[in-house]
Amino acid sequence: MTSKPQSYDAVVLGGGAAGLFYAVQAGALGLSVLVLDHASKPAEKIRISGGGRCNFTNLGTQASCFLSNNPHFAKSALARYTPTDFLNLMERHGLSWHEKTLGQLFCDQKSGAIIQMLLDEMKAVGAVLKLNTEIVSVRHGDGRFQISTSIGDIDSDRLIVATGGLSIPKIGASGLAYDLARQFGHDVITPEPALVPLTFEGAVKDQFASLSGVAAPVMAQAGQGRFEEAMLFTHRGLSGPAILQVSSYWSPGQEIGIDLFAGQSGADQLKALKREMPMKSLAKALETLLPKRLIDHLSGTGLLPDWSRLADVSHADLEALAQTLSHWRLKPAGTEGWRTAEVTRGGVDTAGLSSKTMESRTVPSLYFIGECVDVTGWLGGYNFQWAWASAYAAAQASFKSQY
Ligand SMILES: Cc1cc2nc3c(=O)[nH]c(=O)nc-3n(C[C@H](O)[C@H](O)[C@H](O)COP(=O)(O)OP(=O)(O)OC[C@H]3O[C@@H](n4cnc5c(N)ncnc54)[C@H](O)[C@@H]3O)c2cc1C
Q: In terms of pTM, does the model score above 0.85?
């Protein structure tokens, strides 16, 4: 005899940032909520984020800090659950934070404190979390969802898909959200690794490997993305915040641009060096602006002329050099891929979802939230803010559809 399926107002697939936050919000509104996750621990990405201190939001959050086929899609949800709302929640739990740079807020406590806060909130509202649970299949009929799992059959009025993207498979990432989206007739924008180091091949890779560990402030550019932050040379190519940011805008085959004057006027800076150190060589004088190992590399590759006395160099030559160093063009061979990508670009096409509620436009009571949706934030706390905001929007809508 088969046992009767357990029944809930809402079943959430994925106990990560978005899934747990939906459970907190929908539970607080009185819905019975079950969260299912195949991992043995919830929200592992919160735990490993921000170097263990979770960069949980960004004070500058706005839709223009997100990539999506529809750049307006994120506006509504982001406006209705703001960074201040999350700070208020943290404050109620006695958690504190600090701003590192560019509006990025990090937890003073370990990342685990944010996970614990979400679990405590879930407990307080009676939401249930089941770990180590495989999702076998999902069916929809008679206005309800039947979820077949390794712990039995479950049925629910609503299905919230929050299984995230494909980055870091070793801690449980899977393509379930995309499979379910397709099963229910939704389009999926091809998922690609984003916020990921770029790799090079051949001689350039060898040269960069010899610079491994060197960092410099730059303005990096790929496609429509332009970011002034640090760049880091690695054994396989380039990383650091500036590169991670532009990787989200980069497509295979494209060049990226590096401005070694980090958005300042290179001509003005070189002329100032000539004024202040007329008897120095170009390479020596540049050491006040760039790391010596990078200068040696640029000299070795012929990008830097062998000027032994700046006093002898004309302003026209300095201007030409400034032009070269602010337009360093490089062609990456690829990215470090899903193994290290912080997020997934692409995902469930927003054209099939309501921007107010995250609900499917074609299957009532089916919601997609968090990273599985084609909304990808910049580096710096934006992706968690999207997880909170999209979950909040779906929870509010779930409550309204209940009554
Ligand atoms: C190393 C790293 C550092 C990061 N740092 C930051 C940061 O500081 N700030 C920031 O804003 N963002 C950061 N991010 C991005 C951020 O972690 C994600 O955007 C965010 O966690 C997405 O939330 P989510 O709930 O949509 O997905 P996730 O948090 O990925 O949660 C998805 C959940 O679904 C579960 N799941 C997946 N497949 C299945 C399946 N088939 N069956 C059952 N369960 C399944 C997973 O086990 C997981 O628990 C970082 C990401 C990484 C990888």
A: yes
